[in-house]
Amino acid sequence: MKEKRTGFATRLGAIAATVGSAVGLGNIWRFPYQAGENGGGAYILVYLICVILLGIPIMMSEFIIGRSTHKNMKGAVQQLTPGSPFKFFAYIGVLGALLICGYYSVVCGWVIEYLWNSADGSLLGHTPEQYSDMFGSLVGTPQRCVLWTLLFLLLNFLVLSRGIQKGVERIANIMMPLLFVLLIVFCVNSLLLPGSMKGMDFLFNPKFENLGWKGVVDAMGQAFMSLSLGVTCLITYSSYFNDDSRLMKDAVTISALDTLVALLAGIVIFPAVFSFGMDPKAGPDLIFNTLPTIFQQMPGGTIWAVLFFVLLFFASITSTISLSEIPITFLIDEYKLSRTKALIITAVLMAVVAVLSALSFSTLSDVTLFGKNIFDFLDYVGPNIFMLLGGLVTAIYVGWFLKKEIIHNQLTNGGKYRSSFVQPYIIFCLRFIAPVAIIIIFMYYTGIF
Ligand code: PFF
What we know:
By secondary structure, the chain is mainly α. The chain contains 18 helices and 2 strands.
């Protein structure tokens, strides 16, 4: 029997869930180390420009598609522009979500092991070399990696099995406020450490000589990753928005909160890194090697470590929930499956990808695709190909092919509110700025310049 399509119960719940999707490992793990590698304040400046010129307009375009139809990308395109081939890009979203969630949940598995070890006291009390060995031993031990990853996915799908309101929305309503409180507590603690201002200087003082084209392209890609753009995630979530939600305001609020979390994560990490004389350019290992070294030198280090990994867990599970919802909603809408069936199919597919990438550093380390192991390959193609390509397609679709009345209707809730300069601004960004920027990124990747 066909189940009735429910939506988010409240506007606040819808915002919390979407912020939950946006705020994730991208903000707390990726943003700080990328800022560290790419000239601090200079990278942040470019990032902010990307959010304003690309992020918010593309987020709005996804919201317009989803909220106007209350359908996934394929159904939405069929309804809005019958016969349009753009509907096939729904598959990019579904495949992208499976691949991204596949490697993302492996990192979440590592987070659970670190949380576990922090709680039982075994994480702290080691030398920096030992931390590096510990991390190497975790990723190199197949059973540990696979078990933690599957445990994470189990928790993820347990929440999803409760549905949109009782699962997705409720967990976001609880976890997002807690995440903000934890982040603020961490920021205060970091800023009170001796020598913390050196970290703030490193993070916010623009060093354009360290930016380069790589920094600019990294910042654009990061904006896509961080705002969950291009894989139809926001189309899916906004298909559950109520008709009285305010798309413009909500997109700005969500983007601002997401950016705030990324900046706060930097303020948590860099003052501490400088205060304890660690390397700010440690790259992706920053969280798993550098931070434990720091926590153990702080009074009450065990508690800080536990709280930090709890924070990371909250941030990441609300993101994987949104990634998983993409195929689930697609299967329910397009194949008329029950939520339970759609969920089981998605869970099995994701578990397969996740196990393969969890084994990338051990049993399957010899398996390479384009010179990368499975995990690194997915980490590369997910954000760099699927999200960017999807973003390009969405921008072109809404900017050039969608009727202006539909856009106007969505931006003004059927004429109830004024859209003033917002509509021309969004259409200009979608028509010209986003396609040019994304094509430049593709050219950069292929080495054309
Ligand atoms: N925005 C998430 C992060 O910053 O970690 C990652 C993400 C979630 C990407 C959902 C894409 C997505 F559809």
